[in-house]
Amino acid sequence: MSRVPALLVTHADLGAALLRAAEQIYGPVAEVEFLSNSELSRDDLEEAIERRVARWEHGGLVLTDFPGGSCQQCGMLATREHADVLVVTGVNLPALLDYLHNREQLSVAALAEHLLTRARDSVRVQRAHPE
Amino acid sequence: MSWLNQRVDDRLVHGQVVVAWGAALRFARLYVVDDPSAASPWERDLLVAAAPDVEVRVLTVAEAAAAWAAERDARGGAMLVLRDLRAARTLVEAGAAVPAFTLGGLHHAPGKTKIADYIYLDEADREDARALLRRGVRLEVQDVPATRPQGLAVLDPSVAP
């Protein structure tokens, strides 16, 4: 199975920072692009995403930071003609690490579901002291 | 008066609108006034899904002009967002008595010059701004509720009518 490509689309420099953090845990990361929405209109951000996903021969994942934001909406607008590209939103560091560990083993759809589960499971309330 | 804020923002519905302004104004209805979005059921659905806690109405500029007065007298609060100053001017010239617009995001494009970090205008934008100001419509620059609004004509004296 070939490696599933991914594009991180986030507010400010969150995508770049997530990748730097992932590299500290995973090691050097190749072939993950990131894009910030800073100073981009809706149309320009959509075009910037579309230009990148159009290069993917067998689909891939657009990873965005939060639902309802411009990154997620423009991800949806940019990929509507690309049936083999999925948008995953609400991505966090555990999800990104899960992507890196599984991007050569799973299909686009299976990988999306896998990292969705990891992202959800990683958000927890924990108590280090007795109630 | 149900209208709480009318925003010019080329990102339409996004985090600043839904999260920051939503928390500050607690509007019940969000009018997305945009001819291209209103023409596409798929894009309307996308906009509706982006603000799940409020009622989203995606209308053409002409439809919004017709709905303005009825919404003004409705219960609950409403916010309106459109993508550029041309749509804002068209809305007012079509009969909507909009007292003010908040310029929340007009991003860089070729031929546009910087007014604020998130506001870039070209001559066509300025002409639309002048037309609105001549009608007595206030134009303020403000991205999120926590920042101080500034008059557009203060930041860019060339738009003063």
Task: Give a written overview of the molecule.
The complex is a heterodimer of chains A (131) and B (161). Chain A is α/β, with parallel strands linked by helices and 131 residues long. Chain A has helices at 14-26, 42-53, 70-79, 93-102, 108-121; strands at 6-10, 32-36, 60-64, 85-89. Chain A is 45% helix and 15% strand. In chain A, α1 (14-26) links the parallel β1 and β2. In chain A, α1 packs across α4, α2 (42-53) packs across α3 and α4 (93-102) packs antiparallel against α5. The longest helix of chain A has 14 residues, at 108-121. Chain B is of the alpha/beta class and 161 residues long. Chain B has one domain (3-144): Phosphotransferase system, sorbose subfamily IIB component (Fructose Permease), CATH 3.40.35.10. Chain B is built from 7 helices and 9 strands. A 7-stranded mixed beta sheet of chain B has the order 3-2-4-1-5-8-9, with helices on both faces. In chain B, strands 6-7 form a two-stranded antiparallel ribbon. The model of chain B has no long low-confidence stretch (mean pLDDT 97).
CATH superfamily of chain B: Phosphotransferase system, sorbose subfamily IIB component
Largest sheet of chain A: 4 strands, parallel
**How many domains comprise the coordinates of chain B?**
1
Helix content of chain A: 40-55%
